[in-house]
Amino acid sequence: MKRIGVLTSGGDAPGMNAAIRAVVRTGVAKGWEVYGIREGYKGLIEGKMIPLGVRDVGGIIQRGGTVLGSARCEEFKTEGGRLKAIRSLNENSIEGLVVIGGNGSQTGTFKLHEMGFPVVGVASTIDNDLVGTDITIGVDTALNIALEAIDRLKVTGSSHQRGFLIEVMGRKCGYLALMAAIAGGAETVVIPEVESDPEEIAQILIHAYEKGKSHAIVVVAEGATYNATRLAEYFKQHEDRIGFALRVTILGHVQRGGAPGASDRILASRLGAGATDALEAGKYGVLVGWVNGKVHTTPLEEVVGKTKEIDMELFELARKLD
Ligand code: F6P
């Protein structure tokens, strides 16, 4: 292999730059040229790529987002789009590709693998919903951002005897919400994996009020049937019973925009290096993730189309600690 490409795809995640840096520096150390592909699969189709040397990725490890840019690309979901992408790789003499991204992006990686192109994926998403890795690049930083918001909302909540319904990202996965609830000392948590009854949540709030708490926090995953907006609608009809005045805060993309913390920088560096090792070893069509404290590769066919399961013991714990 003489030349490889690297791209970031889907929602950006803090730590993606550290992963790009690791791919470039370990790739160059193996004697390869490394090309950065701009704006994910969209840029790949359009042939937007630039050579990256070791100095070009200096000073990016501490930066959030992705210096290569990212995109969600509808055209790449079509076979015609993917053929254009492969043509673009061939025209630029790129013999291997590293795709840094989450669930949707790795479905694309698998498609390229099925079409015979040497490709590996790196597990990166704030959702931590990927099978084949214990943890994904970005989730630790996103979690800390959510925690900072929760801590602040507790302060203002206490001043006003308010309850906050705090919605966090995560698509159909409740990991971020669950961890934020435990670490943030929330009264309860609502996640997509567990059918929730709004009346049960109302009872938890009433109980907290009766215990004399000055505020109450409910962390809600955006993918739950009763997301924060729907819960608030339900509670509106029961405000007089609940005690706390309720407010909704949707954290949204704020969670994605932070500078990566130490854990994400280190994880991303290890997985980025693991990706070039996998390409060198001819291990194509795999997700490079982190399993049991080690870099681990899992065939993408075992990864795509699935959502990682939640540890139900942690859900029980979150509900016990109110
Ligand atoms: O997959 C990462 C994520 O941030 C999800 O948590 C969220 O649902 C989605 O991306 C938002 O997507 P977009 O940035 O396209 O609005």
UniProtKB/TrEMBL annotation:
Broad class of where this protein is predominantly found: cytoplasm
Binding site for ADP: R21, A22, V23, V24, R25, K154, G185, A186, E187, K211, K213, S214, H215
Subcellular location: Cytoplasm
Mechanisms controlling activity: Allosterically activated by ADP and other diphosphonucleosides, and allosterically inhibited by phosphoenolpyruvate.
Cofactor(s) listed: Mg(2+)
EC class: transferase
Residues annotated as binding substrate: T125, I126, D127, R162, M169, G170, R171, E222, R247, H253, V254, Q255, R256
Binding site for Mg(2+): N103
One of the record's GO molecular function terms: 6-phosphofructokinase activity
A Gene Ontology cellular-component term: 6-phosphofructokinase complex
Catalytic residues (UniProt): D127
Record-linked Pfam families: PFK
Catalytic activity, as annotated: beta-D-fructose 6-phosphate + ATP = beta-D-fructose 1,6-bisphosphate + ADP + H(+)
Quaternary state and interactors: Homotetramer.
Protein name, per record: ATP-dependent 6-phosphofructokinase
Source species: Pelolinea submarina
